[in-house]
Design brief:
alpha+beta, 5 strands, five-stranded mixed sheet, Fusion Protein Consisting Of Minor Coat Protein, Glycine Rich Linker, Tola, And A His Tag, Chain: A, Domain 2, 4 helices, 140 residues
């Protein structure tokens, strides 16, 4: 019985390691061939020009609290997901988690205004990387 359990465990471990190796090779090939793979993580993640502080300054200068949200007391964090392309442009903008009162639409509007980002890199090449940005709306 112990031998059967040991054999099953080794078989599962081998299958898992084989899948991980195939996935890594697939990602490497996709990167080298210029595939349109969208990475969720990269060796070098994309960044806003000037860094994170500049990004939050940009948001502070451009986000306007929607009047409807202010009147109805909506507050919270909108999570906007988008893809940073190899040229730094932002595409595929969508709300991953929203807040009512027009806050989600405002967060998308401001992301559309952003300048091109510094693109992410994997395997020494610029690649498409998905990024999720939290945009906070708080009433004071």
């Amino acid at each position: 019985m112990k031998i059967k359990l040991l054999f099953t465990t080794l078989l599962l471990l081998t299958a898992s390691l084989t899948y991980a190796q195939v996935q890594h090779e697939s990602d490497t090939i996709a990167s080298i061939t210029g595939d349109t793979t969208i990475y969720t993580a990269a060796e070098k993640m994309p960044s806003f020009p000037g860094g994170e502080m500049k990004m939050y300054e940009f948001l502070a200068m451009n986000v306007r609290y929607p009047q409807r949200a202010r009147e109805d007391g909506y507050s919270g964090t909108v999570y906007v997901r988008f893809v940073v392309e190899p040229d730094g442009s932002i595409t595929n903008i969508e709300v991953a988690k929203g807040v009512g009162g027009g806050c989600s639409e405002e967060a998308v509007r401001v992301v559309k205004m952003m300048p091109n980002w510094i693109p992410g890199e994997a395997f020494g090449k610029k690649v498409r990387v998905t990024y999720t940005l939290p945009v906070s709306f708080k009433l004071f």
